[in-house]
Amino acid sequence: MDSPYQGDSIFWVEVERIKPNPFQPRKIFDEAALSSLAESIRQYGVLQPLTVTRKEIERPGEGIYVEYELIAGERRLRAARIAGIVQVPVVIRHGEDSDRMKLELAIIENLQREDLNVVDRAIAFERLTKEFGLKHIEVGKRVGKSREYVSNTLRILLLPQYMRDALAAGEISEGHTRPLLMLIDRPAEQKTFFQEIITRRMTVRDAEQFARRIATERTRKPDLTPELLLLEREFTEKLGTRVRIEKKDQGGKVLIDFFSVDDLAHIRDVLNREHEVRAPSAPAEAPSSAQVQNESPIAEAAPSEPEEKKNTPSVSGQETGSPPAGGSPQDDLYSINNFSV
Question: Which residues neighbour 276 within 8 Å (Cβ) at sequence distance 6 or greater?
Fold first, then answer.
């Protein structure tokens, strides 16, 4: 079998004469990693050759000018430029490679090195299907993946752009995209769910369980009355997490979702505050029973006698106003003790 590489040899080519691959699927390059690679190249050189194609361009008055187009080795080329290297080793694919072949080779190199993030990979697969008419199974064969892998990767492009940006930045993982895609036809809930994944740092397993519960609400909602739906929404807003009311023939139950001990502690604090607000408190102007007793004039002292009665001498030797022993109330009324001279 003829080798696709020119002479099966390694050539040294000036960095300035190598043009980037227009079909490079990778869009994001870690600057810190490039700087580290550049420092390594300064010390040891480029250890693995780049893959290029050779083009001859006729320039009027200058003759034939040769330039090269990169197929694989984008990071090494960028790092070599940062390091100030003049020449790099390359292997040259002979003949005119098609655009599809350039894209395939670039994808395969990145997949083998696991350098492509999931969004760039999905975009590359989409180009193979739309621009070059390949079926999912054909793309899978070319990149060494199954048809299901290709199809699931392409579904990521159905997510809104801000979710794809978060995925490319590593704020969410590829596993989080599956539960998000379960709500693809419910954009409002999908957006809320995405924000909860970010703020609560949900694991993939928690996110999948959460999405399944949301999806099953379609069959559950008709069983709830408008009043129960309103209560469910109020509970959700008050507690800051999803609350579900399940109605039964007799009564029902309330289910409150939480994803960590901190979440549960927050729910407890909210319920405690709500209980304190609703607890009845004594009016400020109403004194307590103890205060009533202390402020009552009866409790302080018996009413004083009139001044003239205090100065009236006793006739019988008993104190004025004291009924005689064995006397009845009627006798007491006419008793001499009740009269003064």
Answer: none
**14, 16, 74, 104: the active-site residue:** 74
pTM for the model:
0.50
Q: Give the span between the Cα atoms of 167 and 133, in whole angstroms.
A: 27
Q: Are 168 and 28 in contact (CB under 8 A)?
A: yes
Q: What is the C-alpha to C-alpha distance for residues 52 and 189, in angstroms, rounded to an integer?
A: 48
Instruction: List phi, psi (to 5°) of 54.
Output: -105, 135
Mean pLDDT by 10 residues, the chain (341 residues): 60 89 74 86 87 79 80 86 91 70 73 72 86 86 85 93 91 91 85 88 86 65 69 78 77 78 80 72 48 41 46 45 51 53 45
Distance CA 174, CA 151 (A): 14
Among the listed residues 12, 6, 14, 18, the one whose alpha carbon sits nearest the alpha carbon of residue 49: 12
- Told to judge if 109 belongs to the known catalytic residues of this protein, a careful annotator would answer no
